[in-house]
Structures are given as C-alpha cells and as structure tokens.
Amino acid sequence: MPLLSVRREPPARYRWLLWVLAFSLPLAVWSAVSYVPWLWHPQVVVTDPGSVSWIQPGLRLERADFTKEVATAKSSGLTPPSGNPANPLYLPAPHEVGRALYTAFTTPPRLRGDKWLHESIVISIKTIFYGFILSSIFAIPLGIACGSFPALSRMTEPFVDFVRYMPAPAFGALMVAIFGIHLEPKVAIVFLGTFFTQVLITAGTVRRVDPALVEAAQTLGAKRAHLVRRVILPASLPDLYNDTRILIGCAWTYLVVAEVVGVSSGITFFINQQAKYRNFDNVYAAILIIGFIGLVTDQLLSFIGARLFGWKLTRRSRTRTFLGWLFSPRDVLYFPGKPTT
Amino acid sequence: MVKNSDTPSAPTPPPVAASPLPQSPAVAARFAALHARPVILEAEHLTCEFDSERGRVTALRDINVRIHRREIVCVIGPSGCGKSTFARVIAGLQPVSAGQILVDGQPVTAPGPDRGMVFQGYTLFPWLTLAQNVRFGLDMQGRAENTADAEARQWLDLVGLGKFADSFPHQLSGGMKQRVAIARALAAGPKILLMDEPFGALDPNTRAQMQTHLMEIWRNVDITIVFITHDMDEAILLADRILVLKAHPGEVLEFLEVPVPRPRSLAQFNTPEFQATRRHLDALIHPAPSAHDPDHAPLPIIRLTQSGDDVE
Ligand SMILES: Nc1ncnc2c1ncn2[C@@H]1O[C@H](COP(=O)(O)OP(=O)(O)OP(=O)(O)O)[C@@H](O)[C@H]1O
Ligand SMILES: [Mg+2]
Fold first, then answer.
1. What is the bridge-based pairing of β-strands B72-76 and B55-68?
2. Cα of A152 to nearest chain B Cα, Å
3. What is the mean pLDDT of residues A20-49?
C-alpha cells in the first residue's frame, strides 16, 4: 500500500519512522542553518582583529560591515581582521541549546531572589495545575448540565459565549487588584482563560451523544437523573477526556500571560531574565522544556485514556486484538446462529 | 370470517376493512379468540405532524387501531409512510399533534418501561458488558444488585448469548447485538415490545434465524409485539395482523388478518395462504404504476455508451 493514501493509516512499520521524522526534520533544518557556514549566517564573529584598532576578538559584526573593514584594511595595506561566519545570538546552535538544557539547571540564578530553573518550572506547573483543576471542577459539571438540558444551555451559554470573547489578559489588572500579586491572580487568569471555553466545549461534546442511546435508555425506564448519570455521562466521557487533554494546551497558552501579571514568576520570568542577559541558549532550553512537559503530559493522558476507554477505541491496539483473537470462542462469534451451549 | 371488532366506537372513523382473505376454520377460530383478548394498545385519531423547511408534513393522519394482548402486529408501508413515527409515538418518544395512544387504557405521555423498543441501529450501551446492558432496565427499577444480575444472565441465556455475558458490544456481530437488544428490552418487563426494522441491517440468513428466534421468545413471554418492517415476507411470517400504511399522509390502508396458520415456519413460504397474502399486500403497496406518479416515471437517462456497445 502506498505510504500516501487519502484517509488511510500508513502501514504499522512506518509509524515509528514517521514519528521520529516529525522531530528530526525540524532538528535537521535547525542544524543545517546552524552548522553549514554558507546557509544564512548573516554575522561574523571576529577571531583576529588584525590591525583595525576598534575591533576586538569576539566582536559580532554584520557581514557587510565586516567585509567593508576587510576591504578598507587591505586597501590601506594593513592586516585585515579575520573571523567566522555566525548566526545572530538569538539563534543558538543545537549543541549550545543541548548544553544549556543541562547547564540551565546547574547555573545558580544571577541575582539573589531570582529562581533556579527547576523552581521556576515548579511554579509554572503549580499555576497551570491549580487554574486548570479549578476550571475543570466548575466547567465540566456546568458543561454537562448545559449539554443535557437545553433549557439550561439557553440560559447560560449566551453569557458564557459573551465573556469568552473578552481576552483573559484584559482581566490582569483586575485580578491583581482582587487577589494580590502572587500566585492567586495568575491562577485566576488561567482559570478565566480556560473556564468559558471549557464550558462550551464540554456542553458541545455532551450534546453529541448519540440520541438513540438516550432514547433507548428512556424506553428502559430511565428518567432525568439516571439519564444523565448512567447514559449521557458515560457515553461522553471518552470525548470529555480528550477535550480536557486539548484544553490543557489552552491553559499553557494563558500561563505565559498569567505569569507576567503582578510579580512576574515561573518559567516566563526565567525566560525573560535569560533574554535580558542575552543567554538565548537558556531561553531555548526553557521553551523546549515547556514543550517537553506538554508532550509528555499529553502522551501520558492519551495512554491512560486508551486504557480507560477501551470500548471506544476504533483502532484497537495490537496486543488487544491479539488477546481478543486468542480468547474468543470462534465458532460462536462467526456463526451467530449456532446453539451456544 | 370474523366480525371486525377493530373499528373504534368513537365518532365514526373511516371503517377499516375486514380481512379480505379467506381463512381456514382453525385460523378463524384463532382470530376470534384473539379479538376476545383485552385491548392493550389503542390508537385514537392519532395524528402526527412535523414542521420542516418544506412546511408541515403529516406523518400520520387519523390512525385508529386496537391491538390485543399477546398479538404480533406488523406495520408495513412504503418508505416515509410514518412507520417509525408510529412506533416512536407509542414509545412516547414523539409527541402527537392530535388524538392519543392508550396503553391498558392509560394515555401515553412519556417514554416508560411498559413499552420496550428495539431500534434498527444498534443502541446497546458500548461501555457496558452485555449483562450490564440487559440489566439496565432492572437497575432503573431499583432492583437489588444480585437478583438483577442473575435475571440479566437468564435473559441472555434465553437469546442464546449466555456465554458472552461479560463481553462488550463491540465484540459481537450485528445479529448478536440485536438479540441482546431484544433481551435488554424484555428484561425491563414491558407489556409491549416495539421493534423498528430491527433486522433490517442483517444478512438474509441471520435475519431468518432472528425471525425464528423472535417467535420462539414471543411464545414463551407475555408480550405484545408491534413489529415494523418493509419486508412483506417478514411481516407475513411474523404477524397475526398486518397494519398496512400508505404515505403522504400516513394513513391506514388496511389492517389485514394473516390467514397463515400458526405455528409458523419458513417452510410455509410456498403455501397458498402465504402466497395469497403476499399477492394481496403487493397489490396494496405497489399499485399498478402510472406514468403520472413521479416514483414510477421512467428515468430521463440518455445514452452514455457508444452505439454497438450494448449489454442487453
Ligand atoms: N423529525 C422529523 N422532522 C421532520 N419530518 C419528519 C421527522 N421525522 C419524520 N419526518 C417525516 O415524517 C414522515 C414519516 O417518517 P418515518 O420516519 O416515520 O417514515 P418510515 O415509514 O419509518 O420510513 P422508512 O421506511 O424509510 O423508515 C416522512 O415524510 C418524514 O419526512
Ligand atoms: Mg423508519
């Protein structure tokens, strides 16, 4: 089967390869730009100033300026400066970022009161965690109620929709006034950023429950509370779980805004500080760490979800298929008419 | 011939024709006994309309029917004649525009466990095992854990799926799913079992097995069945009486007493009674095509192949 088929999964043996490519391709581009001297490299780092008095070793010059200096020096018979092509500071090479991934954790903060990288990360995770958990505690039940009872949804959702369009950062100053300048206003911003969207998404997911299941339950005698608890909730749980996974990503977006509110803190503060000191390798390291935390959380949740909601799986895991095949009473499965005793 | 006791006494509805097919004395006696049984389900001037973009659609108009206890009534008619609507109205899933449905003399206002339903699509709860699916109705009645479970397993045994009590629906074939759906509906203890083309998606073999199975269950369980189908053979095989509807608007064409003797089996397909019933239904549902009827007008197809490249 060709690898590129419309809406058809690639053969299993390619999937790992594709996953590796997903990360190695961007890395390859980055490496190429970093290590191939004639790719981009708009600057020159001087190694030997020659006889140009104002140039020192280590100085970064735009390539055009550098060439001009060389030309001037040559034409007046002086020793021209020499140097290596370089990328701007804000694009460190992969190995520099790789090194920073380690050193960022081992370098003590420059100022007293600044945080170590791991401390910053812990603060960020705390902010996200509290904000997101709080939001979920209120938004998911409300969303389920709205999705189950159209009357409730008509009463709530217009307002929710209205507030959703107000950017959460706009509430920054207000939150600081209400909650002070430490963790609380930041949690509040993550909450505000997530909550309203979460209500709407949850309600939407709940509304997508197959109405036939609800009707079947009704003909079996299920009434209001039972319908919600025993049918609508379990039927939408896998999708709600997936929504939650996606919304965590949304919460991370608001984190960056939240962390500059009040006393700047967390990973954003670390990034800003490092950028101020022009340690861009550390900046990249921190950004990569956020990405990494996100990816790991997501994969973990997805793994757990697949185990929790096996009945929903359309693409069954290979182990499961194998086990199913091993233990199914085959004669009955394939010949449903046969007596089964 | 049996006198027609189905015409309601209420303000003279259009008379429903008595069975026009000849019945053997045994069959006639059976129908006499059937009509002597109490009426369990009654439709009185039942009308059901929908508002759609194309204006009001009358799905059912002035339906008057009486169905007796432990009868199997099949409802047939062309697509869009309101068969599903009829079942949904009885189930209480569809509000009526006028008239009413009485179950045991009580008007139907909402869905309830006295009217079980088996749908055409598969509506088992995919997150529950078969045993849990079947005991759903019992759980709703607040039955104790262990008796509910034991009863659910008995029902699964009855439909021949006891072995699969702890499997999940996605591990079953379509026919097995429908058997579980029947067990689930019956376990809740309904008086009336509504079945909306329950075997429509099954292959002919499985379908035949399911029909046999259903009759077996019906013999052993105190249940009245309203079975919707568009398959005439299925209707004749299963039904005591066949309610024939016509479309646009959905009205009763005839409430036919099937003269094929019971117990029924697929072997009766070639008997004269079966064939006579079939011909009668055919004439009712598919009247001689007229050119004015858009459904029967020849398709305006032009030749798209080269001349000489003929297949017939
Ligand atoms: N929810 C609805 N909204 C609007 N119109 C509807 C709705 N449900 C049914 N109808 C209309 O009512 C009529 C009867 O529909 P119904 O589904 O009962 O037909 P049916 O006999 O079950 O057809 P089929 O054999 O195709 O299942 C149709 O004309 C249909 O368009
Ligand atoms: Mg239908």
1. unpaired
2. 21
3. 92
Distance CA B175, CA B124 (A): 12
B171: Cβ–Cβ under 8 A, 6 or more apart, which residues? A324, A328, A333, B164
Which ranges of chain B have pLDDT less than 50? Answer: 1-17
B162 and A341 within 8 Å at the Cβ level: the answer is: yes
Domains defined along chain B, listed by start: 24-114+192-285 (3.40.50.300), 122-189 (no CATH)
**Among candidates A215, A226, A328 on the partner chain, residue whose Cβ is nearest the Cβ of B140:** A226
CA distance B160 to chain A (A): 6
Token pair listed for A105: 């954790």
Q: Which domains does chain A have, with CATH numbers?
A: 1-39+310-341 (no CATH), 42-86 (no CATH), 106-303 (1.10.3720.10)
> CA B40, B43, B44, B50 torsion: positive or negative?
positive
**pLDDT of B17:** 47
Q: Are A336 and B163 a contacting pair at CB < 8 A?
A: no
d(CA B148, CA B141): 10
Side by side, which strands form the sheet with B98-103?
Answer: B55-68, B39-52, B98-103, B106-107
* Record: contact A215-B209, CB cut-off 8 A: no
Whether B279 contacts chain A with CB within 8 A: no
**Angle formed at CA B175 by CA B173 and CA B181, multiple of 5 degrees:** 105
CA B30 to chain CA centroid, Å, is 21
B253 neighbors B283 (Cβ within 8 angstroms):
no
* Residue type (1 letter), B56: R
Nearest to A336 among B93, B126, B173 (CB): B173
B117 touches chain A (CB under 8 A): yes
Q: Say how far apart CA B78 and CA B59 lie, in whole Å.
A: 12
Structure tokens at B131: 């045993």
pLDDT in tens, A178-197: 999 889 999 999 999 999 99
Quick check: A131 and A247 in contact, CB under 8 A?
no
Amino acid A309: pLDDT: 83
Find, among B199, B246, B294, the residue nearest to B79 by Cα.
Answer: B246
Q: pLDDT tier at A5 (50, 70, 90 boundaries)? A: confident
- pLDDT tens sequence across A140-159: 999 999 999 999 999 999 99
Give the three-state DSSP class for A203: helix
pTM: predicted TM-score of the whole model, two decimal places:
0.81
Alpha carbons within 13 angstroms on the beta-carbon side of residue A225 total 1
Closest residue by Cα to residue A89 from A33, A43, A29: A43
Distance from CA of B116 to the nearest CA of A (A): 5
CB atoms within 10 A of CB B291: 8
pLDDT tens digit sequence for A311-334? 775 444 444 555 555 544 443 333
Q: Compute the distance between CA of residue A145 and CA of residue A138 in angstroms, rounded to an integer.
A: 11
| A340 phi/psi in degrees, rounded to 5 | -105, 10
Q: CB–CB of A220/B113 below 8 Å?
A: yes
- For residue A122, how many other CB atoms are within 10 A of its CB? 14
pLDDT in the model for residue A114: 76
Please give the residue of chain B at the shortest CA–CA distance from A224: B140
Q: Whose CA is nearest to atom 30 of ligand 1?
A: B80
